[in-house]
């Protein structure tokens, strides 16, 4: 065999150039792009071989993962842009029926909020906030943290319905939604004076402010729980009958009762104070539970109850009478629960005025939630 024949049978391997840092970065970015776009496409994921390859790409280098927290790491703008965001992914990622969701958001994130009061002195109260927006049928989801971030843009202001309206507009814009709702729940203190002794103390009222932006129509609503004593008129008459006919000592039954008053504020008025709504409730049913009492106050409260015996039907109608006479209130709802001391069940009633609160079905725990624990 000649030297020439030997040369022709020798095959040399192709010499690959050493990859530069730039080439390596470009290749890794291409892999990441392929992985990112493939995972958001159901049509691509239907290929078993592609699924296997994608899994291999995801698992490359996992054996060398760092297990210490990189506290010095600062993400670059490019890094932030490249982070996955499945919640805002393709409509193909939607699970279940592709239907519009009326409300999706967050509930019970808490923070101190400054509220205006009728006395002009602001008060800071721990507040539970629930915020939600509508989600169109072709959208996978919403970024929940944006609701909080949008709300915090107004959190330092003294809160009123105008500020709440501003907050709801911000997160509606940030989340590209058509409808939105914001609720702010807190316990509001009002100083009250005892009936005869002159002692004073703070009565706390569970209040929730709600702003609904539906189809670009705003509704501003105040929910208030008013706690009172209800003496049964029937029991009172029977007790008096036993005293007068048989000289028998008897006492009518009375119980702690709760009315949840929900009112839509007339948009023609810019302000409707919590304190004014409480005064309307006291005028309707004056037997509000007491904060500070001495013996003379306890006796006075017994006399006040005796002068104002009330069935649960009487209660909702009495509240309705006062609410109907207030020009700053449009639609309203009154739900009352008398937590009977005679029976092992409660007496309940519901009355609505206007279309805002009308509904055919009631949430099963509606009346169960009207329980004042003190």
Characterization of this structure:
The model has no long low-confidence stretch (mean pLDDT 86). An 8-stranded antiparallel beta sheet has the order 1-2-3-4-5-6-7-8. Helix 9 (274-284) packs across helix 11. It has helices at 3-9, 21-39, 42-45, 48-59, 77-82, 144-152, 161-174, 233-246, 274-284, 295-307, 312-324; strands at residues 101-115, 123-135, 180-193, 200-214, 217-231, 254-265, 329-338, 347-353. It is built from 11 helices and 8 strands. By secondary structure, it is α+β, with helices and mostly antiparallel strands. It folds into 2 domains: 78-178, Urate Oxidase; 186-374, Urate Oxidase.
CATH superfamily of the largest domain: Urate Oxidase
Share of residues in strands: 25-35%
Distance between the termini: 108 Å
The CATH class of the largest domain is identified as Alpha Beta
> Average pLDDT, to the nearest integer?
86
Produce a short descriptive summary.
With about 375 residues, the protein is α+β, with helices and mostly antiparallel strands. It is built from eleven helices and eight strands. About 20% of the residues are buried.
Name the features.
Urate Oxidase; 33% helix; 374 residues; 2 domains; 8 strands; eight-stranded antiparallel sheet; alpha+beta
């Amino acid at each position: 065999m000649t030297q020439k024949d030997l040369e022709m049978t020798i095959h040399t391997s192709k010499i690959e150039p050493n990859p530069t840092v730039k080439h390596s970065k470009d290749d890794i970015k291409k892999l990441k792009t392929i992985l990112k776009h493939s995972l958001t496409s159901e049509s691509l994921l239907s290929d078993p071989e592609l699924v296997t390859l994608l899994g291999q790409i995801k698992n490359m280098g996992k054996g060398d993962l760092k297990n210490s927290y990189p506290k010095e790491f600062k993400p670059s703008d490019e890094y932030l842009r490249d982070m996955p965001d499945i919640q805002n992914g393709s409509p193909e990622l939607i699970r279940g029926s592709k239907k519009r969701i009326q409300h999706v958001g967050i509930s019970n994130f808490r923070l101190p909020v400054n509220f205006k009061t009728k006395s002009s002195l602001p008060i800071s109260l721990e507040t539970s906030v629930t915020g939600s927006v509508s989600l169109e049928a072709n959208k996978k989801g919403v970024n929940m943290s944006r609701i909080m971030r949008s709300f915090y843009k107004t959190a330092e202001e003294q809160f009123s319905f105008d500020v709440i309206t501003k907050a709801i507009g911000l997160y509606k814009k940030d989340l590209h939604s058509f409808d939105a709702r914001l609720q702010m729940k807190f316990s509001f203190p009002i100083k009250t004076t005892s009936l005869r002794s002159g002692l004073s103390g703070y009565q706390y009222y569970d209040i929730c402010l709600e702003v609904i932006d539906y189809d670009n129509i705003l509704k501003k609503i105040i929910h208030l729980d008013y706690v009172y004593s209800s003496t049964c008129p029937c029991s009172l008459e029977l007790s008096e009958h036993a005293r007068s006919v048989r000289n028998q000592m008897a006492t009518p039954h009375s119980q702690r009762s709760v009315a949840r008053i929900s009112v839509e504020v007339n948009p023609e008025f810019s302000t409707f104070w919590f304190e004014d709504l409480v005064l309307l409730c006291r005028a309707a049913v004056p037997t509000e539970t007491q904060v500070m009492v001495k013996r003379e106050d306890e006796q006075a409260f017994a006399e006040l109850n005796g002068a104002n015996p009330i069935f649960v039907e009487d209660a909702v109608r009495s509240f309705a009478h006062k609410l109907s006479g207030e020009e700053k209130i449009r639609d309203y709802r009154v739900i009352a629960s008398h937590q009977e001391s005679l029976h092992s069940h409660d007496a309940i009633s519901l009355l609505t005025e206007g279309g805002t609160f009308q509904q055919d079905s009631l949430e099963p725990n509606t009346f169960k939630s009207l329980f004042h624990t003190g």
